[in-house]
Pyrimidine/purine nucleoside phosphorylase (Anaerobacterium chartisolvens), 208 residues
Amino acid sequence: MNSFDNVSVVKKANVYFGGKVTSRAVLFPNGEKKTLGIMMPGEYEFGTEDKEIMEIMAGELDVMLPGGENWITVKGGQSFEVAANSKFKLVVKELADYCCSYIK
Amino acid sequence: MNSFDNVSVVKKANVYFGGKVTSRAVLFPNGEKKTLGIMMPGEYEFGTEDKEIMEIMAGELDVMLPGGENWITVKGGQSFEVAANSKFKLVVKELADYCCSYIK
């Protein structure tokens, strides 16, 4: 799937970490929400409200999942899940183009 | 208008200048195309094919339009136009969140 069709896109970007992480919200007719975003190389900690599925379309990062003990390397074409109401850490090693799905 | 509705969004980002400028394409039912993008502070030169209307939603930059002699400051909430098949220079002073419309 190269594009999301019949969706709404929020014009204004979400800007985090001084712009090193930015995203835009995509809203689906069934109420589902995703964000399409870019992470520059750097270290970040994020908190979740919903369960999230992070699809890394390009780039490379290491992720420390909630309660995890080891860093996991994730490359373009791979995904990872994060539980709701938790925190996870990322070390982005190569500019990451991502799609995050929020699961209610 | 806070969102674009009933559109298609290309999943993969367009990445320029090592990721300091990124955008995503939004395609409208009538064939119109816009990109929503982020420019980190820095200096850039762009070339146009179509005429472009650049709406700066947030941030601040100086633009040197094709054939121009002076830098023009553009802030969030302001726009500028660039002729087709031309080049323009930008000095982004504050992270810019933009919407670019391509006019056939």
